[in-house]
Amino acid sequence: MSPATGTMTTIGHRIFSPVTRLASDALRLRPSHVVRNKSLQTRRFAEKAADKPAQTAAKEGSESVAKNAETAATSGSEASKSNSWWDSAEFWGRCGALAGWGMSGAAIYDAMQSSPEIISLNMTGVLIVYSSLFARWAFVVKPQNLLLASCHVTNVAAQCNQMRRALEYKQSNGEDEAVNDILVKAGATAAVGAACVLAGPTVQSAIVNANLGVVSTVAAADAGPFTVHFWAPMSKWLISGASFLELDRPTEKISLAQYSALTLTGFFFSRYALLVTPINYTLW
After folding, report:
1. Degrees (nearest 5) of the Cα angle 228, 234, 239?
2. With a threshold of 0.90, does the pTM exceed it?
3. Which residues have a Cβ under 8 Å from the Cβ of 1 and sit 6 or more positions away?
4. Distances in Å between the alpha carbon of 193 and those of 131, 156, 186?
5. Is the peptide bond before 278 cis (omega within 30 degrees of 0)?
6. Is 277 helix (H, G, I), strand (E, B) or coil?
7. How does residue 195 score in pLDDT terms, banded at 50, 70 and 90?
8. Which of the residues 53, 96, 157, 158 could staple to 268 if both were Cys, CB 3.0 to 4.6 A apart?
C-alpha cells in the first residue's frame, strides 16, 4: 500500500468511526427499547386480563344477589299466599276429595241398605264416566291430588256394582229387553270412548300442524278438547243434565246421601278449579 493510500484510510477511519459507532449504538439500543415497550404492553394486557374476570365476577355476583333477592321476594309472596286457606289448592282439593269419598260412601251405603228401586240408571252411568275421567284428572293436575284420584277409583267400582244391582233387578222383573238395550248402549259408549283416546293424539297433531288459526290454538291448549282437563269438567255437566232429567222422579226413589255428596263436590270444586294448573274455567 502506498503512503497516500494509508493516509486516506486513516483519515476516513477518523471521519467515519464516530458515525459508525453512533449507528452501532443505535442498533444496540433499539432492540432493548422494543423489548421494554413490548414487555410494558404485555404487562398492561395481563393486568387488563386479570381485571376482566374480577369485573365479570363482580357483575355476576351483583346479578346473582339481585336474582336471589327477587326469588326470595317471590317465594315469600307465594308462601304467604299458600298460607291462606282461601288461596290454597291443597285445602280445596282435600275438601273436594272428602266430598268425593262421601259420594263413594253413599253408593256403598245404598248397596248395603237400600233397595235397587232407588238406583237411577242414567245417573249411575254418568257417575261411572264422571269418576273415570276425574280419577285421571286428579292424577295429572298440578298439584297432584291422589286422595281425590283414589276416591274416584273407588266410586267407579261402587257405581258399577250399583249398575249390576239395577240390571239384575230389572231382569228379575222380566225386563230383559230393556237390560239388553242398556248393555248395547254401554258397549257403544265404551267403544267410542276408547276410539277417542287412541285417535286423539293423532287428530290433535294434525289440527295443530295445519295452522288453522284459532282452531289450532284451541287444539293445542293445555286444557283444550284433546285433554282430560276439558272432558273431566264436562262430565259434571252430564251430572247436571241427568239431574234435570229426573226432576219428576218420586222422592222415595232418590238417594239423599248421593245427591248431598254431589252438591258438596260442586261447591268445593267451584273454588278448586281456579287454583290448579292449568286453571279450569269449565270446571268452575
Report:
1. 130
2. no
3. none
4. 14, 16, 11
5. yes
6. strand
7. very high
8. 96
